[in-house]
Amino acid sequence: MEVARKKKMGRKKIEKKSSLEVTFSKRRTGLFKKAGDVCVLCGAEAAVIVFSPGGKAFVFGHPTADAVIDRFLGRDTGTSSHAVVPAEQVAHGQEEGGFWWEAPIDNMGLNELEQFKGSLEKLREKVADRVEEMTMVMVMESESGAGPSSATMLFIS
């Protein structure tokens, strides 16, 4: 009995812009998830910085990208290895089996608590902006009499 194998495809640049964007988004998410898995399973510290074809930067870091980069550059500030991952650096929504905002705060120092508070505030702002954006799109669609459009699927990170 033969085992079905994935067909290997040649690696070449994707020319169609919509396909390129979808592929980038999926691959970026997968890359960040793998980096997070290495951190959780092996206790490693990692930072990944990826620029989209449009030039937008996406960052993942554990404990934070800044902490990993500082350590790499020899500027280790001695921060705890259990620092909070800022909201803008969360790639796949979960950190160590739960959401980052569910992290226990009892053992956090003042700096970690301040970083956690800042991350929560940034998350709150992003959620509020997203709700406002989606509300505007829905209002515009209802005023124009058009049904849901591709703008409804817009995602701002």
Automatic annotation (TrEMBL):
It comes from the Eukaryota. Residues 4-64 form the MADS-box domain. SUPFAM superfamilies: SRF-like. Signal peptide: none annotated. It is found in: Nucleus. InterPro entries: TF_MADSbox, TF_MADSbox_sf. GO terms for cellular component: nucleus. Gene3D superfamilies: Transcription factor, MADS-box (3.40.1810.10). Keywords: DNA-binding, Nucleus, Transcription, Transcription regulation. Pfam families: SRF-TF. Its main location: nucleus. GO terms for molecular function: DNA-binding transcription factor activity, RNA polymerase II-specific; protein dimerization activity; RNA polymerase II cis-regulatory region sequence-specific DNA binding. The keyword DNA-binding applies. SMART domains: MADS (SM00432). This is MADS-box domain-containing protein. It comes from Vitis rotundifolia (Muscadine grape).
